[in-house]
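Figure 2 data, in text form.
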Amino acid sequence: MNVDRLERKAAGGAPDRLGVKFELKFAEGAQDGTFSGYGSVFDVEDYGGDVIKRGAFRGTLKEWSGKSKLPKMLLQHGGGWAGSANDMVPIGKWTKMSEDDTGLRVEGRLFTESERGKMIYAAMREGELDGLSIGYRAKDFTLGTKPDEPYRTIKQLDLMEVSVVLFGMNPDALVDAVKSDVDDLDTLSDVEKFLREAGGFSRKTATALVSRVARIAQREAGASKSLDALLEQIRSTGSQIR
């Protein structure tokens, strides 16, 4: 019996967990701090011995939809069973969940406005915080009866939360997009705000720098330089220095 199964017995009815490893890629055309991927992959046995089958999330997602809500986004399942009240504060918000042929597809946004959110976002971008894990209760399942069979084959479950975690348990599920802040700059005002909030520049210095870069870009590209092209040049420069 492995550690995960022992934890289930010791938890006294606490939610089960199934984690998945994710890869980090930066996406285009999305808001800062947004990412997407799979919270669970079907027909793959996790280290705790559970296998989730296609259709397992349909009922629970329908119930969440009826509430006009989605499960919470936590860090490390809210600190585990012995976590503090602060650990239970969500680190972001899931904006979309659906079941496809691969598994549970999730999209969400980190609360990068907070210092905690910025720290988590930085760790994800660096690939050091590289897992997702679902907290759930199995409703309809069968137990394995042979050594080579999964501990449980789950046909239906109640999804309670989806966490960003340090270690994933299932290597086949991926988070495939994390949004870079520079890519969301659409106006020169956005560039100025980014320099102040992310770069630590004063308002005066940020305004002067944006004005200077704009003049240089226009001079190099000619008087017909469009604003869209100018912003793209600023984005390109930012991508090279971050």
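Caption note: Residues 42 and 99 are 10 Å apart (CA to CA).
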